[in-house]
Design goal:
By secondary structure, the protein is of the alpha/beta class. The chain has eleven helices and 13 strands. The protein has one domain: Luciferase-like domain (TIM Barrel, Alpha-Beta Barrel). It is globular, with a radius of gyration of 21 Å. It starts with 16 loop residues before the first strand and ends in a 14-residue tail after the last helix.
């Protein structure tokens, strides 16, 4: 199925998916001060594995891993890139979708598509791609800066298009593995994509066979989608929206829900048995006050968060939670928030053995180069 097909044709059922961001110590710039790990252990493989396992056991549908080639402004730096982190935990997870951030600016889309297809194999069909933009990283890549909005959006749109073409450049049955005849590939089922853009061209085919999901699930930010007249929403499976309040977030969701699944980005600070959320946040702000919230923000009790998520479930297909401090908020989410959503039937645990597409209610796309679909 071509990427320009109506989204309604790709959706198989309605469900509310739960995602969580697991990069660093939490969204708050002072979160590392409240972490249970020493600063030198925050970026370790053991810490990553423990948090991913906790999120999977809690019943989250997916986890995202933010990333940038530039070091963070505050907190520990020197992290391993997001696709490598996701690949590291892939074999030790069984239901959790793994969605690393990879910027579309400057990174070579051929390499991005190959890495994500490999992740889909190692996770047995649970890979996603958080397609971000990172225009400030030009010098790090040794590239000419993308300074205008149109340049950044073009790069974003072209990178997603190239990745989708490369994932389709191998038909599903291109690999033969006929040991007796010595034939392992059907060359007629590998295809050149012949993409010509303004800043790069890609001939293909990919060096990795078609991913188990057909195409990796693509996530994009609503700011990128809504600003582009060419509508990357048609090329994104999930669009992340936010707002200053729930009404603004649901209004943003209405703009794109006809062409993609919609997730609401939500920062959360929860009451713990020992301290109220307001006190926790005030203490964090004393160390390093963050910028004004760029996302919908919640601070309060687990019960009130359940009510908010129930409200959002009537307008969106999912939510991505950004805990203020992962070590403090994730256990409360696992004990008091997700169980209530699961009992109420608002959310459902991912099905073991299913792909991320299936758990999101998306069908497996047909290959655009296969003769029967041309």
């Amino acid at each position: 199925m071509a990427s320009t097909a109506r989204f309604d044709d790709r959706r198989t059922m309605s469900r509310f998916a739960l995602g969580i961001e697991l990069d660093g110590a939490g969204y708050h710039p002072a979160a590392w001060r409240r972490s249970r790990e020493d600063p030198d252990r925050l970026l370790s493989a053991r810490t990553l594995q423990a948090r991913v396992s906790a999120a999977e056991n809690a019943g989250f549908t997916l986890a995202t891993f933010d990333d940038s080639i530039l070091p963070p402004a505050t907190g520990p730096a020197g992290r391993i890139d997001a696709p490598t982190r996701a690949s590291f935990v892939a074999a030790t997870t069984s239901t959790l979708g793994l969605v690393p951030a990879v910027a579309t600016t400057y990174a070579e889309p051929f390499h991005t598509a190959s890495a994500l297809a490999t992740l889909d194999y190692s996770s047995r069909g649970r890979a996603g791609w958080l397609a971000t933009v990172d225009p400030g990283a030009a010098a790090t890549w040794g590239r000419r800066p993308r300074t205008s909005t149109s340049e950044i959006l073009r790069e974003h749109r072209d990178s997603i298009e190239v990745a989708r073409r490369l994932w389709d450049s191998w038909e599903d049955d291109a690999v033969i593995r006929d040991w007796t005849s010595g034939r392992f590939l059907d060359r007629d089922k590998l295809h050149y994509i012949d993409f010509e853009g303004e800043t790069f061209s890609v001939k293909g085919p990919s060096i990795v066979p078609r991913p188990p999901q057909g195409q990796v699930v693509v996530f994009s930010d609503s700011a990128t989608v809504l600003a582009d007249d060419h509508s990357p929403a048609a090329r994104s499976d999930v669009v992340l929206v936010t707002g200053a309040d729930p009404d603004a977030a649901t209004a943003a969701a209405a703009h794109v829900r006809e062409t993609a699944l919609v997730f609401v980005d939500l920062q959360v600070v929860l009451d713990t048995p020992a301290r109220a959320a307001a006190d926790r946040l005030a203490e964090l702000d004393e160390h390093c006050a963050p910028e004004p919230p760029a996302r919908l923000h919640f601070s309060g009790s687990p019960a009130d968060l359940v009510d908010l998520l129930a409200q959002l479930s009537r307008h969106a297909d999912g939510v991505r939670l950004h805990p203020a401090v992962i070590d403090d908020d994730l256990p409360i989410l696992a004990r008091a928030v997700l169980p209530a959503l699961l009992r109420a039937g608002i959310a459902h645990r991912p099905v073991p053995g299913s792909t991320l597409r299936a758990n999101l209610g998306l069908t497996r796309p047909a290959n655009r180069y296969a003769k029967e679909f041309q």
